[in-house]
Amino acid sequence: WAESLALALHVMHRKLGRLHLDLKPANLLLTSANPSAADIKVADFGISQVCPMSHDGHWEGTVSAEYPMLEHAFSAPEQGSECGVSPATDRYQLGLVLLQLLCRRRLEDMG
After folding, report:
1. CA atoms 36, 92, 64, 51: torsion sign
2. Whole-structure pTM value
3. Torsions phi, psi of 30, nearest 5?
4. Which pLDDT score, from 0 to 100, does residue 83 have?
5. In angstroms, what CA-CA distances link 31 with 10, 34, 39, 40?
6. Secondary structure of the chain as H, E, C letters
7. pLDDT (tens digit, 0 to 9) for every residue of the chain, 111 residues total?
8. Upper half-sphere CA count for residue 24 (Cβ side, 13 Å)
């Protein structure tokens, strides 16, 4: 699933010019009750944002985070600050999701 999630982020960022900003296990849906046969889908685009892109498909800077700071373990450090968000925000959250999957423990329980 890691490769599928990374590809989904790539498509969201490069092809759609969109940041998800709320990646967490609750927003990842399996298409089958059998995990080994399931595809994974990204859901809940409620706080997603469109970002400006240059003509060559690269991001131009960051976008201000105009929403309350998220209160879950998957929030990136820049969320809720004045630094702004970027594709790195989604990649940070993806890394935390994958860490939890690999460790088979909730992030809150890792200390």
Report:
1. negative
2. 0.82
3. -95, 145
4. 74
5. 20, 9, 5, 6
6. CHHHHHHHHHHHHHHCCEECCCCCHHHEEECCCCHHHCCEEECCCCCCEECCECCCCCECCCECCCCCCCCCCCCCCCCCCCCCECHHHHHHHHHHHHHHHHHCCCHHHCC
7. 889 999 999 999 888 889 999 999 999 999 988 878 888 899 999 888 887 666 666 666 666 665 555 667 888 888 777 777 888 899 999 999 999 988 988 887 876
8. 15
Provide the β-strand partners of residue 85.
Answer: 63
**Alpha carbon of residue 83 to chain centroid:** 17
* CA 3/CA 93 separation, integer angstroms: 15
The neighbouring-strand residues paired with 59 are: 53
pLDDT on residue 96: 93
**Strand 40-42, strand 28-30: pairing:** antiparallel
